[in-house]
Write a structure and sequence with these properties.
heterodimer; A: mainly alpha; two-stranded antiparallel ribbon; 7 helices; 2 strands; 79% helix; flat; B: mainly alpha; 76% helix
Chain lengths: 160, 503
Amino acid sequence: MLFLMKKKLRIKIPDIIVVLIIVGFSSYMFFEARGFKRAALNLTMIGPLYYVILAFAVIRIIQSFESVSVDESDSLKTAKKGKLTLFWENNSRIIIIMLASIVYAVGLKFIGFYISTVIVLPVMMYLLGVKKIWLLAAVSVGVVLFFYLSFDLLLSVRLP
Amino acid sequence: MDLTLITNSLAELFTAKALLLMAFGVLFGTVTGAIPGFSTQLAMIVMIPYAYKLPTLEAAVFLSAIVIGGNFGGSVSSILLNIPGTPQAIGSTLDGYPMTKKGKANEALGAALGASTFGSLFGGIALLLLLIPMGRLALKFGPAEMFLAVLIGITMIASLSEGVFVKGMLAGIFGLILGCVGMSSTANMRGTLGFYELADGIPTLPMLLGCMGLPEIFAMVTKTGIVEKNSFRPNIRKILHGVRVGFTTWAYDLYASILGTIIGILPGAGAMFASVVSYNECRRISKDKDNFGKGDIKGVIAAEAANNASQGGSWALVMALGVPGGTSAAILYGALVVKGIVLGPRFLTDSLGMGYSITLSLIISVLMLLFLGVLVCLVFSGVINIPTNILAPVLLVFTSIGAYAERGYVFDVFLMLVFGFVSYMMRKHNYPTMAMILGIILGSMAETYLVRANQVYRSIWQLFSRPVFVVLFILAMLAIMLPIFRTIRSKLLKRKVQTEKEQ
């Protein structure tokens, strides 16, 4: 009993999220295919694979439970608090480029390639630490010019 | 084989115009291949209006040269940035990028060039000698045999999962399920979430750019440079040394080229499939298989030789049977049909001379690649010295346009982002994303052939009366069982050593 009191179960949440994404989409595919008229044919491959994926998902979820001692768990919590304050510092550049990639894709959809590239590319570089204005301008204009000359003019590839 | 006809075909190629077209085709294919997302097919498509204006033979020779250049060009960004320039260059990322991180980018590029040349030459010569028998061999592959061939490819998921078995299997099987997205054989739309853009399945290029390119770009910004500041210098001697290694590791070259050529003649398999299967098979036979994936030059050679050799097989199939084995062959087929040439059995009787000319042009283009490829390597390899705060945003623009350009849908850019975010998360938590990619690529092929085999053959015993099926069945069983036996044996050995130590 004393042994049990000193131990705590810890779950690796990001691991579970990945498993949930995999199982979630696989379940959607499986149940959608099962609802079709000729379900057997639609499930020829998805059916067996789905059950195998469920089995591996259960194993992975069990594996993602870690048994840690209370002391270890407390120190992890303190470390986590420290980590949270450092989170932005460590991941700010990744978050910037991730957000920029979404903004750029939306820009491609609504304002087209040239305008969105001229706006997003220098802003992205500036936020990542390039402060020289001439460099920001040169790279942005260079990239746009490259695409205009090669894709648009020379190769006739339609840009968004 | 008619030697007089071959000599005449060769003479037709030695005109200034034909040679210039080949050189331009190789250079264009290599440069566009090195741009992430600019696939060989896209390079061919954008040049089709120009090819239409050329005489038939010159058009075919020009388009073939683009393929030769593109097959190698894709490996440049695979090796330098871990972003496959073309889908078939996926195998080169596995050992090419680790070599770059070790400061051996010059050697990796050289080895890729050497192996590409070896593979293409092997494929070209095989095509020349076996044009007619190879076409006949392809006819022996029914849906059941094709399913087994794909199954052998799928066994690579197990090798990619070493050390993280459960995660690898989850990723690989998830990939196989994702491979089934799109219109099924019963005309039902599965897993498309209502997006008609997914009706043909998950598009390969946006998926690849998302799974491999974006996580690399995200990871890139956490560092100031890919290699230590200005520590890398493009070096022609090291590139040429790599080329020599690419040629002299002949056992791997030969094995990979044979596999590549055979896979090339299988309809629908293609260069990308050849590249991953050959990488896995060469790893399987290698004495130091543990080094594969950690920057082993043999890994680059295995992937590149097979990817390029598959072209010979693919061209044999399209010329002998009129069946385009892959997208590049389909574009060549279309271009020739417009010119009034119908490929297939009649092509070999009516226009065998042209067949030999196209084959010989592949060989000449490869020799040109050897020289032009070195120049491209020298120019492009400097890219890894660019600071990541400039390189990453620029690469993001290139990958986005690469994802968009093939089909012209902005949807594909969003799809790339979804794959990018999921893959980044998977990579951060040790899920082998390569297993998922392999699953997606092979999933749709596996399902198509499995469903067809189910419909064609009434009983499993009927299948065992087909010799090719029996051979492939034994190979597939060996591919599945051998890694399991090896794992059990190594575990038993470890236990034995431990007990001996304890005693």
